[in-house]
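Let us work through a complete example step by step.
Step 1: write down the sequence.
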Amino acid sequence: MDQLAQTFSALEEDRVYQIIDKCLEKSSDPLLIVNELSKGMKKVGQLFKDDEYALGELIYSGEIFKGAMEKVKPFLKEGDDKPLGKVIMGTVEGDIHDLGKNIVITLLECSGFQVIDLGVDVPASKFVDAVRETGADLVGMSLLLTTAME
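Step 2: predict the structure and record it as tokens.
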């Protein structure tokens, strides 16, 4: 499994998908796959922080993560268990970036939370309305700091 995180952080998209397919064929625990993808994403974040990856690589890693999760999601157990909680997620008004939000949503859903995604460029009042309407336990707001500083 360590190979998956390393391959992911090297942005080897086709190889990432091949490893996932092989793991799923062997009936590997899909949560272990998600964990390795998360480790790979963490490494990408560190490479970005260290200026070894540019914004383009960071965005590309998000696309790889999204594609990988499309492969894994059907194998995640959808039990009859009550969700751990309800989470409202959205990107704040004035910002249209959703890479981070989408990654967090996927990880929350894989961890057993019900997530209501409000989308991007969401005004504060819509977050408040969503909490009132759904009784959500948590609210997550995403933003790219430079675009939504005010």
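Step 3: interpret the result. Residues 2-75 form a domain with the Methyltransferase, Methionine Synthase (B12-binding Domains); Chain A, domain 1 fold (CATH 1.10.1240.10).
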